[in-house]
Write a structure and sequence with these properties.
CATH topology: Rossmann fold
Oligomer: single chain
Number of helices: 12
Bound molecules: S-adenosylmethionine
Largest sheet: 7 strands, mixed
CATH superfamily: Vaccinia Virus protein VP39
CATH architecture: 3-Layer(aba) Sandwich
Number of strands: 11
Radius of gyration: 19 Å
Distance between the termini: 33 Å
Length: 345
């Protein structure tokens, strides 16, 4: 597993595919069918920040079963949704069709998005909660975002805070404990969790996942290197699910924060950035983003030369992480602590 850049995809794809039947039931899709104005809580939360999207070409990366995508469509954007999970896109297409929404859904690995969709195509790139933790290289992600946008186009992202992703499971004594890496680490961390974040019968048929954290500095630097200028960055105490167990309290729109002194923790953030470079002025880094996303062999070679392959020490540390996580996660399988994004319906 270690050092094999394909295996995280296979593991995570199986994991996401196995969640879809449960999410189709648990995401409350009928609310969208019954009420043509219904919007997801994630989009409603950010309405004051979103600005006008009417008439804009927008892409929702890692769109899952399309609830945020449909919500943006309802706000007037011409929507494309991209995800690597075929079953998730089937549900998204069905939902869009039931709601009479014309949305283009495209099946693709995130790092292949420019090949799948084309360059300089969108006014807005949207990413919802629980997306970045599935991607091993934040710089490649930023290069993809920048390449998809037209000059002057903007990124809008609401995401779980990297500090939140460091926390262990909720504890009976209410202590909040930093347990997982804050920074991007080669190989990521493996989790085995039998339940998804919606309540469901039975266990996931593919409970393993491999997840990656990216520090705030890493995210901001990656965007800057990709020719993006951050125009707003707001940290929130809450997230649109309860990662705190009994220690959490609901605030608005099914958003949860620490019940005790919530000012201790930034749990999520909303970030906006605009592409600053003109069509002809591609940053050198961006060219890498595309090439490396499209030609896998070349990408691996580059990573080796740049020293990005995990060292033995890193591999050993990761194996220990995996063993620890397995022990811990096995015991905590029925809890709802984040295994990555916990998007809200
Ligand atoms: C937590 S969901 C995104 C949340 C979304 N905001 C929603 O509607 O709930 C994460 C999505 O990322 C997708 N995903 C994970 N890794 C991916 C990858 N490497 N390429 C493309 N999609 C990926 C999964 O299939 C899943 O649909």
């Amino acid at each position: 597993m270690e050092g094999d850049s394909e295996s995280y995809r296979q593991v995570n794809l199986a994991n996401w595919n196995s969640r879809v039947p449960h999410h189709e039931i648990g995401y409350g899709l009928d609310a969208y069918r019954v009420d043509p104005d219904h919007l997801s809580n994630v989009i409603r939360f950010d309405l004051p920040r979103l600005g006008e999207v009417k008439g804009l070409d927008a892409v929702h990366l890692q769109c899952h079963i399309g609830t945020d995508t449909l919500s943006l469509h309802r706000l007037g954007a011409r929507m494309t949704g991209l995800d690597f999970s075929a079953p998730a896109l089937e549900v998204a297409r069905r939902l869009a069709s039931d709601c009479g929404a014309d949305i283009d859904y495209v099946e693709s690995e995130l790092y292949g998005a420019i090949d799948a969709l084309g360059e300089d195509r969108f006014d807005v790139v949207f990413t919802g909660v629980g997306a970045l933790c599935w991607l091993p290289d934040i710089r490649r992600w930023a290069a993809i975002v920048s390449g998809l946008l037209r000059p002057g186009g903007r990124l809008f992202i609401r995401e779980g805070h990297p500090m939140l992703w460091t926390l262990g499971d909720p504890r009976p004594d209410g202590e909040v404990v930093v347990e997982f890496p804050y920074f991007e680490t080669a190989g990521g961390v493996e989790f085995v969790i039998a339940q998804s974040y919606v309540e469901h019968e039975g266990e996931l048929t593919s409970p393993r996942s491999i997840e990656f954290n990216h520090g705030i500095g890493e995210i901001l630097t990656a965007l800057a290197e990709a020719g993006m200028r951050v125009t707003s960055f707001e940290e929130h105490r809450s997230v649109p699910w309860n990662p705190f167990g009994d220690g959490g309290r609901m605030v608005v729109l099914d958003e949860w924060e620490l019940g005790d002194r919530p000012e201790r923790l930034a749990a999520s953030y909303t970030l906006q950035a605009v592409r600053t470079w003109p069509a002809a002025g591609r940053p050198a880094r961006l060219a890498h983003g595309r090439q490396r996303g499209t030609r896998h062999g070349q990408h691996r070679g580059r990573r080796r030369r740049r020293g990005h392959e995990p060292t033995r020490q890193a591999q050993r540390a990761r194996r220990q992480d995996v063993r620890r996580a397995r022990r811990r996660r096995g015991a905590a399988a029925n809890r709802t602590r984040a295994a990555g994004g916990r998007p809200q319906r």
